[in-house]
Amino acid sequence: MTLVGTSGLLAAGPAAADPLETMCSRYVAGETLNIRSTPSTGGKIVDTLRKDEAVCGTMTKGGSYTACNKTAATWIGFYWKPTPPGNYGYVASTCMKG
Fold it and tell me: Could you give the domains of the chain?
């Protein structure tokens, strides 16, 4: 079962029967983060992931950034609106606990 919070963000782990979500890992936001359209600081900000909200996502390489006192080029990609065909977005991996 997948739970969706009041903001529409995924709030719990994957549904076992959903093949798109069985390949993801659970991450929790360490602080409020911008959700971007591409894995880059140049990507359009499309929403916000609030501190302590959880998502089921995958690590991906993208543009370099500094966030949460760390520099990296890895991002967490995930569906932030109800699962497919919802919207896919990216947040800085350095600010996620997983």
Answer: 19-97 (2.30.30.40)
How far, in Å, CA of 83 to CA of 63, rounded? 25
Residue matched to tokens 């739970």: 3
Burial of residue 66 (CB within 10 Å: 0-12, 13-18, 19+) is exposed
Please give the full DSSP string across the chain, using - where no structure is assigned: ---B-TTS-B-S---TT-HHHHT-EEEEESS-EEEESSSSTTSPEEEEEPTT-EEEEEEEEEEEEEETTEEEEEEEEEE-SSTTTS-EEEEEGGGEE-
Provide the whole-model pTM.
0.75
Residue-level pLDDT at 7: 46
Q: What is the mean pLDDT of each run of 10 residues along the chain (98 residues)?
A: 42 45 86 96 95 95 97 94 77 96
Can you give the pLDDT at residue 22? Answer: 59
